[in-house]
Amino acid sequence: MKEIRIPINAMRRLAGIAFGAALALTSCSALLAQGPYHVQDKWKLGGDGGWDYLAVDPQSGLLYITRGNHVMVVDTTAGKVVADIAGLKGTHGVAFDTDGKTGYISDGASNDVAVFDRASNKITQTIPAGTNPDGILFEPSTKTVWAFNGRSKNATVIDAKTKQVIATVPLAGKPEFPVADGKGSVFVNIEDKNEIAHLDAKSHTVLAEWPISCESPSGHAIDIANSRLFAVCDGKKMAVVDATSGKVVASPEIGEGPDAAAFDPTTHNAFSSNGEGTLTVVHQDSPDSYSVAQTLDTQKSARTMALDPKTGKIYLVAAEFGPRPAATPENPRPRPPVLPGSFVVIVVSK
Hints:
By secondary structure, the protein is mainly β. It has one domain (about 55-350): YVTN repeat-like/Quinoprotein amine dehydrogenase (Methylamine Dehydrogenase, Chain H). Helices cover about 10% and strands about 45% of the residues. It contains 1 helix and 28 strands. The strands form 7 sheets. The chain has a 4-stranded antiparallel sheet, with no helix packed on it. The chain has a 4-stranded antiparallel sheet with strand order 2-3-4-5, with no helix packed on it. A 4-stranded antiparallel sheet has the order 6-7-8-9, with no helix packed on it.
């Protein structure tokens, strides 16, 4: 067979084309792995009043949204309200027992934790907590419920089996959102001290208080596999903290006015929902290296969210507001009223 000779310049061009194609394929694969995220839907649910945190039931996939004196229960396949938990005064958060049957609501205005049945969405009993219970979680290794009390600056620990308070843990300042590693450690932002407190769920003690140089940390998430905490703060900052040492390993920039955080271990993305009307997607390049992968426009006031770990979808809530009322001595910082019928759930997916 006759030998075919290819000129050296042509070979270089072919090599360059092949390299470019491989690079483009790699970049495309990375893009598909990380996003982009987009607003898939908006569900107009309406209803009066404001809101606080929301949570996805890991068993049923139902979305629970705290709305002042009640909790809306939303079917995420249809985008419709299917139940309403009423008879409350000032709700903040929802937590779910691993038994798949029981849920817990922090009712700040009544200083109680309300226990409800997840099949009927009916309140079965209330348990006295501290003053203004806010953030709440279920700690699976000890089968306890932790309600963090904003005004009394402590945590109420409830035995999930007996529904009795078994401890009250004093804290250094005002607690915000808690997370747990499932192995006996609980972590909570201390908003007025710019710290994270590390608590032992077995001994009901504070093991450490870590300054994080992050103003007014509120929303909080955890990467259990890599022992990393994600606290979102004022000043457009997310503090990524080593959950074993308390060291801040990264401080990626996020949007203005955050109030919730989430972490998806499947995509290695951390999220910050920002009141300015954006969702910041921060990609975990390595446990100590993070880059902003995307800033998605959502809607102004969409500062709280919940991640469905099964689907990877993110649910945010927002509304439109009327003029802010004049300040009074009794209410020096009044909030503007929610316009009737404007409350929506924003569904974000890949």
